[in-house]
Amino acid sequence: MPRFRCAIAAAIATLCVAAPVALAHQGNPNFRSAVRSISPAISGLDAQVVNYDDSIELRNNTGRTVLVNGYDGEPYVRIAGDGTVAVNHRSPSYYLNEDRFGEGVDVPASASAKASPDWQTVDGTGRYTWHDHRIHWMSHSLPPQVKDEHKRTKIFNWKVPIAVGASPATIGGRLVWVGKSSGGFPVAGVISIVVFALAGLALVVVVRKRRRRPAAAAPAKEAW
Q1: Residue of 94, 99, 207, 211 with fewest CB within 10 Å of its CB?
Q2: Residues 6+ apart with CB under 8 A from 6
Q3: Are 205 and 4 in contact (CB under 8 A)?
Q4: Is 47 helix (H, G, I), strand (E, B) or coil?
């Protein structure tokens, strides 16, 4: 029984601690950021926002090299026509994107918009996902546009400059506040997981007790 109690406490503690940590690296469910266009339209090039307002996923099937510019206009991500994906480790954006709000990030002196790119290959699928500060609200406080927290409100339109081959292009999108009632920490889901975990642990204890219970003594045979 002491082990059972310890297991229950450990399960609850893990769920209560691990869930917020996992959510800390996701987008904000009270917002929605979405790609509205790639201008000009380019066949074989697709983009979408993932994790509410957190990241952009870019897929290049154009047969040409696609270059994503960083916040200072520097080359940041390169997806070659053959699908090779490389990231410029001298782009300040590479380091600033490590934190949702760019806080407490150490950008090395070697990272500069004017520095020659240091391309590091990271993938070969022609697809890459990165956090981008341009597509979300860069503050812990509510946007001033939000007057009613339960009302859907447009925050701003955004643009991410890219180049396809030698031709400039833009990924354009919109950030919208959808309200607190549409997202948030999944308390009900966590409670369900706890209940199932406790039920499973209880079943294990019952089965173990039955196995340890000594078998009933067989009736003695009568001597004739």
Answers
A1: 211
A2: none
A3: yes
A4: strand
